[in-house]
Design goal:
Elements: H1 2-23, H2 32-63, H3 67-95, H4 97-120, H5 127-155, H6 162-190, H7 197-216, H8 231-241
Helix pairs in contact: 2-3, 2-5, 2-6, 2-7, 3-4, 3-5, 4-5, 4-7, 5-6
Length: about 240
């Protein structure tokens, strides 16, 4: 009896896995713009998770902050990312997806470059304050990226592919986190160079994401399958029926 139950359980698990894979087939509905956003998401996540993992060590060992000041700076940085989420959504909506992605990636690239230069050249005047300013300016760019990804996932997916589209976005973000950890291993243990170069990799990934968005995101209208009715038209029809 237990053997039969185990076999049935195994078949059930297999069917669940097959169904899980089949669900992702609907992603074929999504255009190039959706896949571009996912590549940008991956590059952005990799750069961010690598940076956030070493930021405390970088501020204390490379910039010279004491433990208390480091804590204040990191807290202000993370809090500002959260606070920025409340208003970057409105900015993203007003700019449109393409311009919002471009601005977010360019802002992140420039601020990472500023931190990189301060880490590489100790003689820069007021470099401690420049690093703090760059991190605080980075926060809205990070928040804007988060909000615009959600808008883009909806805009560039059909109703039937939307669930899988958001799930893939979340999976790619987590994969970026794993790769970000491997990037730290590459810099510290394999290349054996200073952690400041994490910001060099991060800036490079941000600029690459900017270029991908600039040249590959063209569509701005909502994606729909052939049998999917426009939401505005559906509401109009319902009002007329009443």
């Amino acid at each position: 009896m237990s053997g039969a139950a185990a076999a049935a359980s195994g078949r059930s698990a297999g069917e669940m896995i097959k169904q899980y894979i089949r669900d992702f087939k609907v992603l074929a509905d999504n255009p190039t713009e959706y896949w571009t956003i996912q590549i940008v998401n991956f590059l952005d996540s990799t750069a961010y998770f690598a940076m956030i993992s070493i930021i405390t060590l970088f501020l204390s060992d490379n910039i010279g902050f004491d433990d208390t000041s480091t804590g204040y700076v990191v807290t202000a940085f993370t809090m500002l990312v959260t606070i920025s989420l409340f208003f970057t959504g409105f900015i993203s909506d007003s700019l449109g997806i393409k311009r919002a992605v471009n601005l977010a990636m360019l802002l992140q690239g420039v601020t990472r470059t500023g931190v990189l230069l301060c880490g590489l050249f100790p003689g820069i005047p007021y470099r401690e304050w420049i690093v703090v300013a760059c991190l605080l300016l980075f926060s809205p760019g990070m928040a804007m990226g988060i909000t615009v990804y959600q808008s883009a996932n909806r805009r560039f997916s059909t109703k039937r592919s939307r669930g899988a589209s958001f799930l893939l976005w979340y999976m790619i973000m987590n994969i970026g986190g794993v790769i970000g950890g491997l990037l730290i291993t590459l810099v510290r243990q394999i290349l054996e160079i200073d952690i400041t170069y994490i910001f060099a990799f991060g800036a490079g990934l941000s600029y690459l994401a900017f270029l991908l968005s600039l040249f590959l995101i063209r569509r701005i209208q909502q994606v729909r399958s052939e049998d999917e009715e426009d939401e505005g038209e559906a509401r109009k029809r319902d009002r007329e029926a009443e």
